[in-house]
Amino acid sequence: MDDDLIRKNPFRFELASVIVNDSVTREAISRKQKRELLKFIKEDKHFCRYYDAIFILFNTGLRISEFCGLTFSDIEFDQKRIKVDHQLQRTSQMQYVIQDPKTENGIRYVPMSDEVVACFRRILANRVAPKVEPMVDGYAGFLFLDKNDRPMVALHWEKYLQHIVEKYNKIYRIQMPKVTPHVCRHTFCSNMAKSGMNPKILQSIMGHSDISVTLNVYTHVQFDDAQAELLRVAEA
């Protein structure tokens, strides 16, 4: 390089795609990364048990505390929607509590695609009924229970995703960046923005209190996204 003998990158990939900079937390992953990660989870003998839940996280934009708080009655199959009016938290004293959604717009209905409906149906069909259904502040019938028959909380899913990505990165040369439940949520929001969804509708689905929060997602799109949108409008 110093002698100017090498004038271009001799590889087809960027070094940044191989060596992950852990000092920067990525808020979203690309559509390609999402497809590859979900395919890996679905085909892995151990982690395939989490596929349906992680697919839902990637395709609904639910906050993880809202997701953990879901009960039987919150999944309205006939309307193809999810009722979101509470969230489940576990305190530092290991107490389970039900709280209102994070924002004033958090009480909402989230639409379900056919694929998400199918995931929820499999989750319900495969759920092993505990000897005693746990109840938290009057809520029972939680969809996801841990080995102690207690409702799963955010930490469970953070650890599952951490272990999944670690295994993925041991197998594949092109590394997967850090993926958390929040990254799943932001990836959904980014993909909907790139697809041209009306910002007000997206704000409603995400439960953002302020439209500026939703609009900030639109600033994350890349040049290719802007170019494609320009062509789409020009051809309309």
Task: Explain this structure.
With 236 residues, the protein is mainly α. The chain has a single domain, classed as Intergrase catalytic core (hpI Integrase, Chain A), CATH 1.10.443. It has 9 helices and 7 strands, in the order H-H-H-E-E-E-E-E-H-E-E-H-H-H-H-H. It has helices spanning 31-43, 51-60, 64-68, 114-126, 154-171, 181-194, 199-206, 211-218, 223-235; strands spanning 75-76, 81-84, 87-90, 96-99, 108-111, 135-136, 139-140. The strands form 3 sheets. The chain has a 3-stranded antiparallel sheet with strand order 1-2-5. A two-stranded antiparallel ribbon has the order 3-4. A two-stranded antiparallel sheet has the order 6-7. Helix 2 packs antiparallel against helix 4 (114-126). The protein is globular, with a radius of gyration of 20 Å. Residues 16-26 have low confidence and may be disordered.
Element layout with pairings:
Blueprint: H1 31-43, H2 51-60, H3 64-68, E1 75-76, E2 81-84, E3 87-90, E4 96-99, E5 108-111, H4 114-126, E6 135-136, E7 139-140, H5 154-171, H6 181-194, H7 199-206, H8 211-218, H9 223-235
Task: Specify the CATH class.
Answer: Mainly Alpha
How would you spell out the order of helices and strands?
A: HHHEEEEEHEEHHHHH
Question: What best-fitting shape do the alpha-carbon axes yield?
Answer: globular
Count of the domains:
1
Structural class, by secondary structure, is: mainly alpha
Strand content bin: 5-15%
- According to CATH, the homologous superfamily is Intergrase catalytic core
Distance between the termini: 47 Å
- Mean pLDDT, rounded to whole units? 87
CATH architecture: Orthogonal Bundle
What does the largest sheet look like?
3 strands, antiparallel
Total beta strands: 7
For the biggest β-sheet, the strand order reads 1-2-5
Nearest-angstrom radius of gyration?
20 Å
Helices, by number, come to 9
Residues in helices, as a percent range = 40-55%
Q: Which residue ranges are poorly predicted, with pLDDT under 50 across at least 5 consecutive positions?
A: 16-26
